Amino acid sequence: MSQRVTIPACEACPVRIHSVFDALHGGETEVLDESKGCYFYRRGEVIFHEGSYPAGVYCIHQGAVKLYRSDSMGNLVIVRLAKQGDLLGYRALLSNERYTATAEALEDTVLCFVPRATFFELLRQNSDLMAAVTELLARDLRTAESRLASLAQKTVPQRLAEILLYLRELFGEDEHGVLKTSMTRRELAELVGTAPETVIRLLSDFQRKRLIAVDHRHIRILQPSGLAHVAELYD
Q1: Contact at 8 Å (CB) between 10 and 29?
Q2: Please, which residues have CB within 8 angstroms of residue 214's CB and are 6 or more apart in sequence?
């Protein structure tokens, strides 16, 4: 169950520059502060469920979130990962439709919730914010199309190699070169679109080839160019 936490001020929030709300001007951040709520979710807690209606949008202040849905066989498939500054639920809100995926905290996460009325009012008042949201829609659509093409055309080893590079780009690495996300083998499998046993085998194979180093749930990429070659990612 989510917990209320101290609401960070938007004007001084270091995360805002990575979100669409960086387009706000003057007193608009005060309007946002007055209406938003802030909540803490532990890893594994559900933020919203597929099929429910949105009452506003969420902005990730701290942590990470996975969005997933069930395929025709009843298997869970992760359709998106979101990090600090990312917006959740905005597409369903804009289209006045139900959520098409379930959002779950990938790690301990703090979210700011902006009510529907406030979000739409800010969109009406601020053309820069509208442009930022439009750009976000286009970028998310492009990412979804690329993912569909990858799932359809690439082998499982190629997809896993591409996913590892994607996680590196999305979350970054710590001072030891370890990916700043500790996804379980099942979560990696849901992201790649295969079985956990296959992911475990392929990670061992990548480690044997010295492409990565694995320590429980911690993964360090040793040869990004080698993974890119496996994934057939070429300029």
Answers
A1: yes
A2: 203, 204, 207, 220
Chain centroid to CA 184? 15
pLDDT digit string, tens, across residues 88-108:
999 999 999 999 999 999 999
At 137 the three-state DSSP class reads helix
From 178, 177, 183, 145, select the one nearest 163 (Cα to Cα).
183
Nearest Cα to 178, choosing from 144, 151, 224, 213? 213
Q: In the chain, at which residue ranges do the beta strands (DSSP E only) sit?
A: 3-4, 37-41, 46-48, 56-62, 65-70, 76-82, 87-88, 102-105, 109-115, 212-215, 218-221
Question: Buried (b) or exposed (e) across 91-121, using 16+ Cβ within 10 A?
Answer: bbbbeeeebebbbbbbbebbbbbbeeebbee
Rounded CA gap, 108 and 35, in Å? 24
Average pLDDT estimate for 162-190: 91
Concatenated DSSP letters of 173-227: B-TTSBBS----HHHHHHHHTS-HHHHHHHHHHHHHTTSEEEETTEEEES-HHHH
Taking phi over 0 as left and psi of -120 to 50 as alpha, with beta for the rest, 2 belongs to beta
In this prediction, residues 125-139 reach a mean pLDDT of 94
Task: Label the pairing between strands 102-105 and 65-70.
Answer: antiparallel
pLDDT tens column, 50-87: 999 999 999 999 999 999 998 777 778 888 999 999 99
Category of 192 on φ-ψ map: left (φ > 0), alpha (ψ -120 to 50) or beta? alpha
Residue 162 CA, chain-centre distance (Å), reads: 16
Q: Kindly state the tokens that stand for 153.
A: 């055309």
